[in-house]
Automatic annotation (TrEMBL):
Identification of the protein by name: DUF8129 domain-containing protein
Bias (Basic and acidic residues): 70-79
Residue ranges, compositional bias (Low complexity): 80-92
Occurrences of domain DUF8129 (ranges): 17-61
InterPro entries per record: DUF8129
Residue numbers spanned by region Disordered: 60-112
Superkingdom of origin: Bacteria
Source organism per UniProt: Tamaricihabitans halophyticus
């Protein structure tokens, strides 16, 4: 198995296109070409390829990579340190379906 080159963006394959649009602004021509090759070889998502190739074209026309690290913020929510407030005691009692959608037509088999 051949080792894949490290991608310039962390968690690239999991990024939504809206985040990718902002994060590729700091990449140079060579880094974008790595992403284009990776995308073509793996997912081949047309909107992503279009976005990457459009950015490459802008760089070739004279645009400069943005300063700073565009990937500083995480797209994944931080894990919470506490559990859910829901419990078995606070859950609704199981009920059968209403007969014809009307409570008065439903026998009291599992109604309170």
């Amino acid at each position: 198995m051949t080792e894949q080159p490290e991608l310039p963006l962390r968690n690239y394959d999991e990024l939504p296109i809206t985040s990718l649009r902002h994060q590729i602004r700091s990449l140079d021509d060579a880094e974008l070409r790595v992403l284009v090759a990776h995308e073509r070889a793996h997912a081949a998502r047309a909107p992503v390829l279009e976005l990457l190739e459009s950015r490459l074209a802008r760089l070739r026309e004279g645009a400069h990579p943005a300063q700073g690290d565009q990937a500083e913020r995480s797209e994944r929510p931080e894990s919470t340190s506490h559990g859910s407030a829901a419990s078995a005691q606070s859950a609704a009692k199981p009920r059968g379906p209403l007969r014809h959608g009307v409570i008065s037509h439903t026998p009291p088999r599992d109604r309170p």
